[in-house]
Design a protein that fits this description.
Two copies of one chain form a homodimer.
Chain A: H1 5-12, H2 16-24, E1 32-33, E2 39-40, H3 43-57, H4 62-74, H5 79-118
Antiparallel strand pairs in A: 1-2
The first copy, chain A, binds a DNA duplex (30 and 30 nucleotides) through residues 4-6, 14-18, 20-21, 25, 36-39, 61-63.
DNA sequence: CCTTGACTTAGAGTCAACTCTAAGGTTTAG
DNA sequence: CTAAACCTTAGAGTTGACTCTAAGTCAAGG
């Protein structure tokens, strides 16, 4: 079974415009065309889209995703480089997670502080209450 | 002890340009000026900057941070609204964390797959190895 | 045959968040 | 006294990632 650009876009939770933009940026070299020039997405292509979505949502810039995809298209000789890029990207994700958790704690403390002011009885999972900044 | 815009920017890991931009967007109503019109940052101001940084790094748009800060400046009557905003923001952070962890697992599987191809002996903490997409 | 609706392209427009420039003011060191 | 090194403003320019428009092609239904 294959998909039109609209159907593929729906499955990926983006617009057809966005998929065309990705194609223009070199992210979709694997997508083929039918006799009248329209893009045809296969199940395998949707897996590629899933990978792109994964990299995008972890903060990799479109250009770098393009580089990665081009490396994939270039074949086995690029496996070392691809592996290295993903390892560095994993480091970036771990730093994001750390920062996000740290900031979440600060927000939690602030909410706790507001809960006290407003007189709410321990509704949320609390950390020890100390405001991040004055006010 | 007080700080110039450059020193405050350094402490916050942004440029002085960025702090002026934040001021223009209404994020720094608390910062006062010296007799010749230059911004003077107090220790308390740096705490505010810390809060702004926290909200920014968890994905809150500048405009919304502006709204929050204006609410703070408006006094006690806005405590309920501020609390509500932070509670909703916490939900957004938790969703981000969930997605980030999910995508991290996919990246880990892909790295494991490359490790096998490249013949590396279990260097990293592995999840069960399955590639995200073909190739 | 003709309209409807999906697709195509090149290229322009939008938005957030900076990032920088120009032109000028003030304070300190030589 | 003046040059360096800060600061100020208004406003223009950049970047990344879309987002949309215009003009056109193509296949199916009435």
């Amino acid at each position: 079974m294959t998909y039109t650009i609209k159907q593929a876009a729906e499955k990926m939770n983006v617009t057809a415009h966005t998929l065309r933009y990705y194609d223009k940026e070199g992210l979709l070299p694997f997508v083929s065309r039918d006799k009248s020039g329209n893009r045809v997405f296969t199940e395998g292509d949707l897996e590629w889209l899933g990978l792109i979505s994964c990299l995008k949502h972890t903060g990799m810039p479109i250009k770098q995703i393009g580089t990665y995809i081009q490396w994939c298209a270039a074949g086995e000789s690029s496996i070392g480089a691809r592996r290295q890029m993903l390892i560095e990207h994993r480091e970036a994700i771990l730093r994001q997670l750390e920062e996000l958790n740290h900031n979440l704690e600060a927000i939690n403390r602030k909410i706790q502080y507001y809960n006290k002011l407003v007189g709410v009885k321990a509704v949320d999972e609390a950390v020890d209450p100390q405001p991040v900044a004055a006010e």
